[in-house]
């Protein structure tokens, strides 16, 4: 989010208001959810923002809490502490050492204010520890700077200053260790099970004690980094750190602190070039059972360290590094910009460059690998940290190896034209990828995917560059086209929120000057949010869906008769149906006009949605639906299904296979008509040609029925259809035909065995029982 925010400010407009709109939607959504049940979960929501790396939004939220009169005083007291934690976490993602140091200074100031204002607060001890963390953070910045080739003359000064900060931090950690140890020991060895609060307090104290031990061992490791690699002092401190981490691991072997200590012990071996021992530890940790979020984060760190070992001169397992890094990056898109994510990408880039330069690599593979290395190096180079300078050096090396000019275009037209020239290449690569996916050749798929991502990344970069080179002489239509194509590059890389933000910006800016471009931008924004809904964890889907609704409503309002408006309505109907909100789905489907080809499908879907809403309310024990609402949903379902069936059958050849959605609609409508007492109408929907249900569910003699329940010829669906037919014939007193329907029902269900046939009759009985309950709820 931080990087998205910084980027959007360069679009020469009020894009920040869009992001603030998104922020407000999220805030309001959370507040509305909780307003009827409990007080606003201030800290839980704040922690959620930090976990998702929405640091800018978290700082804005903290400011609103500061200004709001309804926020409890105990929350306002700790706002400086929470600001410090947010800045400390955010500092890992800013784009220069100077900016990192500035954020760490701000965090330190907030902590010092908190300690000054509330020295006796229960969080005071932790605030002191966080001060030490800030010192360690500043020391790491100095270490990175000392390792930069451009700072070779000042290396000793950077190292010395870093050691001083580590020494100060160590003193705080030691004091915390002594304090937490005393607190933990004060609880004694045994606490009865019924004293749950006291047990929880001891567990918290033990956790803080473990953390303090880890902090001290980490200081030793970081102090080693303040000496030149391979030097006697460097190796001495690594050996010492290894023993300290081993001590923590021995005491807390199965706990997170013990696993983290084991990870760092492996890191110490790795930096002493004992690669075999390090990989043994890393493989052990990657195989550790469990699915907790903490363990997964730790295993990601372990994966990074393992890749370093595989890239080591003694291993040179470059292809394995590329494969494992690619798998991790695809599975962890949300964390690709974290320190661990950048480290994994850096190992991948190094492996790609080294493999490309191997004399046995063929020319075509060499070019592909160099392009991928260049893409990864440029992505890494956007962020501050230990990979900033080394990635810049790689960029220059790879450009030379690719026989390209090291410099970038210097004007808008050149950057825009160069980016456009890559679009044709993107199209060809996407076609190659489709062909590879059809064959199922995993190696070819991975190769083409890698090359496509490299070209997409470079094209995105050039469109960004073009926007930075805009002058008053550049026509607004070209600027909007650049923004749109940039959003499309985001979309193809599944950068969903970036797609939505920039697409929405294009829609707002081009509304008057180029309505077609504005519509394309709005539709792309919708597509980006749809991606985000699909990719998001279950608990975040609702908030994103609310944003998508707003975008689709904008398309439907501003371009009501466009094909894109129809697509938006159909997509919203599909999304709401997928997430089991049938009434919302029905609303969107019912808005599709009768002048478009999708009208019949929309009518059928609206009818099924109303019918699902009705059935869901009936089976729900504590449904709040009134009898009038139930009757209305039933009537709406019948109306839309009848309309959709009539429209779908228009112009549909009699000898053509019946569309599944038409058959399902006829069965649903027959069920409704039976409930209404219109049994003859139900018989008509089920049996009358063309495209009768009975004919559609039939299979050739001797052939098995498909297993997929969604198939209208499946045993489940065919059984249900014949159940309705049996009921309809009984209702019309056509007992001979009812006997035929019963025989067909037994034949269909009997194909799955006697138990299945019994289950069918039990289900039929249950359906009749449910119908009595439906009538009762409707007051009939």
Calculate the mean pLDDT score and round it: 87
Low-confidence segments: 1-38
Q: What is the total tally of β strands?
A: 0
CATH fold description of the domain at 652-780: Serine Threonine Protein Phosphatase 5, Tetratricopeptide repeat
Question: Kindly, what is the distance between the CA atoms of the first and last residues, rounded to a whole number of angstroms?
Answer: 55 Å
Structural class: mainly alpha
What is the correct CATH architecture of the domain at 652-780?
A: Alpha Horseshoe
Please tally the helical runs, counting DSSP H or I stretches of 4 or more residues. 34
Biggest β-sheet description? none
Q: What overall form do the CA principal axes indicate?
A: globular
Question: What keyword list fits this structure?
Answer:
single chain, 780 residues, mainly alpha, Serine Threonine Protein Phosphatase 5, Tetratricopeptide repeat, 34 helices, 75% helix, 0% strand, globular, disordered N terminus
């Amino acid at each position: 989010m931080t990087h998205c925010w910084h980027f959007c400010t360069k679009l020469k407009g009020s894009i920040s208001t869009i992001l603030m709109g998104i922020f407000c939607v999220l805030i309001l959504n959370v507040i509305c959810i909780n307003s009827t049940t409990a007080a606003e979960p201030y800290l839980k929501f704040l922690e959620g923002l930090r976990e998702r790396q929405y640091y800018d939004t978290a700082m804005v939220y903290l400011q609103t809490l500061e200004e709001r009169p309804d926020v409890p005083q105990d929350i306002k007291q700790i706002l400086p502490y929470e600001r410090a934690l947010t800045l400390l976490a955010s500092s890992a993602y800013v784009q220069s050492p100077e900016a990192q140091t500035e954020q760490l200074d701000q965090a330190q100031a907030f902590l010092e204010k908190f300690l000054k204002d509330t020295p006796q607060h229960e969080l005071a001890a932790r605030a002191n520890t966080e001060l030490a963390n800030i010192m360690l953070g500043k020391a790491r910045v100095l270490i990175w700077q000392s390792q930069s080739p451009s700072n070779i003359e000042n290396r000793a000064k950077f190292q010395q200053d870093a050691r001083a900060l580590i020494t100060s931090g160590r003193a705080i950690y030691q004091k915390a260790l002594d304090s937490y140890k005393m607190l933990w020991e004060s609880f004694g060895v045994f606490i009865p099970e019924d004293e749950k609060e006291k047990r929880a307090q001891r567990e918290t104290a033990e956790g803080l004690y473990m953390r303090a031990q880890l902090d001290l061992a980490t200081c030793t490791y970081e102090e080693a980094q303040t000496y030149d690699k391979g030097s006697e002092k460097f190796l001495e401190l690594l050996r010492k750190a290894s023993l300290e981490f081993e001590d923590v691991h021995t005491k807390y072997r199965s706990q997170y602190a013990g696993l983290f200590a084991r990870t760092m012990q492996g890191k110490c071996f790795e930096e002493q070039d004992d690669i075999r021992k390090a990989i043994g530890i890393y493989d052990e940790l990657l195989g550790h059972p469990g699915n907790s979020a903490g363990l997964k984060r730790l295993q990601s760190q372990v994966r990074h360290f393992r890749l370093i070992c595989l890239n080591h001169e003694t291993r040179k397992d470059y292809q394995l590094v590329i494969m494992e890094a690619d798998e991790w990056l695809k599975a962890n898109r949300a964390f690709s910009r974290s320190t661990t994510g950048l480290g994994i990408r850096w190992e991948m880039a190094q492996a790609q460059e080294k493999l490309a330069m191997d004399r046995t690599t063929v020319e075509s593979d060499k070019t592909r690998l160099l392009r991928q290395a260049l893409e990864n190096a440029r992505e890494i180079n956007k962020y501050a940290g230990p990979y900033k300078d080394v990635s810049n050096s790689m960029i220059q090396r790879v450009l030379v190896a690719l026989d390209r000019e090291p410099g970038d275009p210097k004007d808008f037209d050149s950057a825009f034209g160069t980016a456009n020239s890559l679009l044709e290449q993107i199209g060809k690569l996407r076609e190659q990828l489709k062909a590879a996916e059809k064959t199922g050749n995993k190696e070819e798929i991975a190769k083409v995917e890698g090359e496509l991502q490299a070209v997409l990344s470079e094209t995105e970069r050039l469109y960004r560059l073009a926007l930075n080179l805009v002058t008053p002489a550049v026509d607004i239509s070209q600027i909007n086209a650049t923004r749109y194509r940039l959003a499309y590059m985001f979309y193809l890389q599944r950068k969903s929120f970036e797609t939505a933000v920039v697409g929405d910006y294009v829609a707002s800016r081009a509304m008057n000057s180029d309505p077609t471009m504005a519509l394309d931008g709005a539709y792309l924004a919708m597509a980006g949010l749809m991606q985000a809904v699909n990719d998001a964890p279950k608990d975040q889907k609702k908030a994103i869906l609310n944003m998508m609704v707003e975008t689709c409503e904008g398309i439907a309002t501003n371009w009501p008769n466009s094909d894109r408006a129809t697509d938006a309505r159909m997509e919203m109907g599909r999304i709401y149906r997928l997430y089991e909100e049938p009434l919302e789905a029905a609303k969107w489907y019912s808005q599709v006009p009768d002048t478009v080809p999708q009208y019949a499908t929309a009518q059928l879907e609206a009818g099924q949605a109303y019918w699902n809403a009705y059935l869901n309310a009936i089976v729900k024990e504590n449904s709040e639906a009134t009898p009038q609402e139930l009757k209305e949903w039933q009537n709406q379902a019948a109306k839309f299904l009848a309309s959709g069936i009539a429209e779908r059958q228009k112009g549909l050849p009699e000898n053509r296979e019946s569309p599944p959605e038409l058959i399902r609609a006829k069965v649903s409508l027959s069920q409704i008509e039976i409930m209404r007492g219109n049994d003859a109408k139900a018989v008509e929907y089920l049996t009358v040609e063309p495209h009768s249900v009975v004919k559609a569910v039939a299979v050739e003699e001797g052939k098995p029925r498909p297993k997929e329940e969604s198939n209208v010829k499946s045993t489940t669906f065919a059984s249900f259809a014949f159940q309705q037919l049996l009921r309809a014939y009984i209702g019309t007193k056509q007992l001979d035909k009812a006997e035929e329907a019963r025989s067909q029902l037994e034949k269909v269900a009997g194909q799955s065995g006697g138990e299945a046939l019994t289950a069918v009759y039990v289900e039929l009985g249950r359906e009749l029982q449910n119908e009595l309950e439906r009538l009762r709820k409707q007051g009939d």
